[in-house]
Design goal:
Structural class: alpha+beta
Number of domains: 2
Largest sheet: 4 strands, antiparallel
Shape: elongated
Helix content: 55-70%
């Protein structure tokens, strides 16, 4: 490979990854602006159980820091695009658009799986009884189509091999999303008794207050309040337990499924 061809390959690689990074930033800003500010369905730290963090000013400040981070990521993507301008000028625009859509779609999946289901700091809608359909619907409407269309645009360039495998990413993330949804929607095991376990930092009054807020009936409780056996009907919400610091609520196939199911 000649020196000029080597430089061209490097510029082309920068342009592609720049488009991908820019797509992630656009996905994060789309999420934050639409869900945090316009629709106001949640804030970044809506479900973090802390009296200080429940202050709306702190919530908005956290949203602002999130947008600053997305802005910085967007600037990195633009810089990569600019530095690869020589290659981008001769490359088909569909390749850059495809990578941008791929980054946008990847962000939607990462946001729901990591921030909603693993860190549990917010959901798409925190003001509804069943937030799982909103999480799944958001990924289906905005995540999966962007991944699929981005891959289609990249695959249409038969003379080039994509720098990453969009098909593999799409299939893996879609399968993971379907598996997580399946666990979340699995029917509760057992008759109706649920074991709730709280973290050591939870005060007894907070644990019992969360049980009362959930609408569950206490069958048995340790004096510390950290372990309780609860009678929970199908219309009882598990969300207050998790907000108070529950680390496990039984009755589903997995702790994460219990959170997603509420």
């Amino acid at each position: 490979m000649s020196r000029s061809e080597s430089f061209r390959t490097d510029y082309d690689r920068r342009s592609r990854w720049g488009a991908f990074v820019l797509g992630i930033a656009l996905g994060g800003l789309f999420d934050g602006i639409l869900l945090h500010q316009v629709l106001q369905w949640h804030h970044l730290l809506s479900l973090v159980g802390s009296e200080t963090l429940n202050d709306i000013r702190v919530q908005i400040f956290a949203d602002g820091l999130f947008h600053v981070l997305m802005y910085i990521i967007g600037c990195v993507g633009l810089w990569l695009l600019w530095s690869g301008a020589n290659a981008a000028a001769s490359a088909r625009s569909s390749s850059l658009i495809g990578m941008t859509l791929l980054g946008f779609g990847v962000w939607q999946i990462i946001d729901v799986v990591f921030f909603h289901w693993i860190l549990r700091i917010h959901r798409i809608r925190v003001d509804v009884a069943s937030p799982l359909p909103w999480d799944i619907g958001w990924m289906v409407i905005f995540g999966v189509p962007a991944l699929a269309f981005g891959y289609w645009l990249l695959a249409s360039r038969r003379n080039r091999v994509p720098p990453i495998s969009p098909r593999g990413v799409s299939i893996a993330l879609t399968a993971f999303m379907a598996g997580a949804a399946g666990l979340s929607l699995a029917p509760p095991s057992g008759a109706g008794t649920t074991i709730a376990v709280f973290g050591d930092e939870v005060a007894p009054q907070d644990a019992f207050a969360s049980i009362a807020a959930s609408g569950a009936e206490i069958v048995w409780a340790h004096p510390s309040g950290l372990v309780s056996a609860l009678n929970m009907s199908s219309d009882v919400s598990r969300a207050p337990l998790y907000r108070a610091g529950a680390v496990l609520v039984s009755g589903t196939m997995a702790p994460c499924a219990a959170w997603a199911k509420k």
